[in-house]
Amino acid sequence: MFNKFIITACIASSVAINVHAQGQPCATDHHHDRLLQKYPLLAEYERQFNEQLGAKLAAKTTAAGPDTATYDIPLVVHVVHDYGVEYLSDNDIYDAANEWALAFVKKNADTANVIAPFVKYIGNARMRLHLATIDPKGNPTKGVVRHFSYLTYNGDDDSKLEPWPNNKYINIWFTSSLGSSGAAAYAYYPSSAAFMPYYDGVISLASYLNTSKTIPHELGHVLNLAHVWGNNNNAAVACGNDGVDDTPPTKGHTPGCVPSAIFDTTCATGYMKTYTSMSGLADSVVDYPDTTNAQNIMDYTYCAHMFSKGQCVRMRTALTSPVAGRSNLITSANLAETGAMNPMPDLAPVADFTLNKAIGAGLTTDVRTQFLTYTNEGSFVFRNTSWNDTISSVYWTFSNGASVPTSTSMTTVTNRFSEPGWVTVSLTANSNAGTTTVTSNSLAYAADTTPVGGVGYSQKFSNLADMHNWPMFNYYNNQFKWEYYNGAGRGDNNCIRYRSFDTTDKINGMAKGDRDDVFTPAFNLQGVSGNLFINFYTSGAATPAGSSASRDSLQIDVSTSGGARWTKIAGFRGTELANNGARSSMFIHGTSSSWVARSVSVPEIHRTGQTFFRLRYWPGNVGNNLYLDDFSIAAFPAELEELSGNAGQFVLFPNPSENGTNLAFTAGNDATATYTISDLAGKVLASEVLSVSPGSTNQVFISRSLVPSAGLYFVTLTTGGNSATRKMVVQ
Ligand SMILES: [Zn+2]
User: Fold this and answer.
1) Entry pTM
2) N or C: which end of the chain has fewer CB within 10 A?
3) What is 641-730's CATH number?
4) Is residue 658 over pLDDT 90?
């Protein structure tokens, strides 16, 4: 009677009962297929485990005397957050954990709503859930830990940060969103957890902390329960069963907290089980209810009220099996080691704060604003996020000529800074149990309003002091970040780089989802007409694993509002950045590596007396490092600067073009330069002789009207006895 079943499961995200059933609201198939593909041995593990468990279950049903022991289970809750709504409060977690526990001792009040046919099948799992009071290092804890990470978005196994040993604690992670569209949560059965202990546990949307027994449902999976219709997530499709006798066959219901589901007889009519005696003879027939058990916690109905007795036997069997270390959870030694039976300790608070989106007139900014001038229309907003105890008071201090230098606000402090540079912020949090202080000088940057230059500005990053007004933000404080680099450079030995190198081994970190910025100082571009570029050089590589699908990208933004608002003006993606090919190890720019000139046109609307630029890097999955050097502001693209020593060489920009292109060149040592435009057949379409000063830099506009149609043409320039030809693409 023990079925082979699929190892992953989750439940539908929609809680509204008036929503029509969705096809496949959950990610089981996705996770299951992914695991089996990656770890083919898993299927064998699963088979062996089910054999073991089947034997144990059989032994239990024939053993004398009822199994009445009570088991205690230590839990730890991980909040993976970006200081958004997923930053669950301690008290909400404690309240929810108390609620989860009720379903495992048959004390949830809504068992009173179980329909008559199933009342006698309501099971008591006799399991007590406890938030741990001692962490894996032996330190006191309240059983809640917090991880500040972008992995709160599109959560999956990679978001299961810093698991506590799965043979000592059941880990439960909460995230802002899940990568499996439509899923609210998922967990792994013991057979797969045994194979990959670091992914064991429950991961759930933070918004499902205490919704419709989502967590008891997932803990059911952790303890080897399948959905009541069987080993898949396709509720409401076909009759199936879960290998548990007292949950009649069902299609499952999603959503289904309606009479037609609760009294659904479709698959259950005439459902009887025959049990054989020790002598092998049939000695009893049980006629189970002719209604499906839609109120079962392992259905999708959202009126989940009960585990059945058979499910409780199954969960208790899993909990007393060594597979995935389950049986160790409940040992007295482990309960002592994890402090599961101790009352929650009274611990000092953990002082913590973050920055909100800036406030000010009509601001549309990033989620958090960490770079602003003091003259712009917005203000920094600091928010108290201290936790781990009931906070009785706080005390803030701010450096840099803060408009509010100290505060006792328990919520937010709105501030401006008149002295440029990194702001030192300190927050002390007090409770009855103690006081802690946290200080940061890498969260908020007050940008200088004084421009450092305009057209002609050049920054070679020659020494570290050059970086003093080029703040680099490592928002999530991890290894993927901008950094000053000494060891390679264009023309010298220094530059900046984004350390994007990522391995396919996700246990050691995953870059995808991160982003980091480096900001320029202010430039005075007021009144500059004609072409204007920011120029820089990059040297990058991909990894073999990511070369065909590298998602690294570099985005260039501009602000004329002192950092309050940003506008994207350019982006470079994937293989475009990887000009040095793929490297299996971390890419270090060396003598055989090359630089590529990058030029970004600055539209006139952004040319003010205080224009800032932002270089934003989005590391992709399995990316590699990018080096960046020689940032300048000029009327010509970087490529031309490079050619300035070569009379007769020239550049076309933009190219390809739609509405004409610019031809820029350095004149030879005579007073004329001639350009011609010809088609693929060699026919000359236009020609012009220009008067120039010897050795001067020049630019001429080639009108779109000089060529008859879109296509490929050749431009040839002759000056000072030198000649060069380039392709011109007209779109
Ligand atoms: Zn499920």
Assistant:
1) 0.86
2) C
3) 2.60.40.3080
4) no
CATH 2.60.120.260 fits 458-635, yes or no: yes
- Spacing, Cα 653 to ligand 1 middle (Å): 57
Ligand 1 centre distance from Cα of residue 218 (Å):
6
Of 287, 291, 286, 289, nearest to 275 by C-alpha is 286
pLDDT at 666: 81
CA of 344 from ligand 1 middle (Å) equals: 30
Distance 41 CA to ligand 1 centre (A): 23
* Nearest alpha-carbon partner for 512 in 425, 427, 617, 412: 617
CATH match of 353-447 with 3.40.50: no
**Average pLDDT for 205-231:** 93
Q: What is the pLDDT of residues 365-401, one digit of tens each?
A: 667 889 999 877 789 999 999 999 999 999 999 999 9
pLDDT digits (tens, 9 = 90+) for 562-573: 998 899 999 998
Q: How far is the CA of 297 from the centre of ligand 1 (A)?
A: 9
Cα 11 to ligand 1 centre (Å): 5
Q: What is the pLDDT of residues 263-322, one digit of tens each?
A: 999 999 999 988 887 787 878 888 999 999 999 999 988 889 999 999 999 999 999 999
Spacing, Cα 16 to ligand 1 middle (Å):
18
Distance 148 CA to ligand 1 centre (A): 27
Where do you find CATH 3.40.390.10 in the chain?
Answer: 25-227+310-338
Can you spell out the DSSP letters for 506-572?
Answer: GGG---TT--EEEE---B--TT--S--EEEEEEEE-B-TTTTTT---EEEEEEESSTTS--EEEEEE
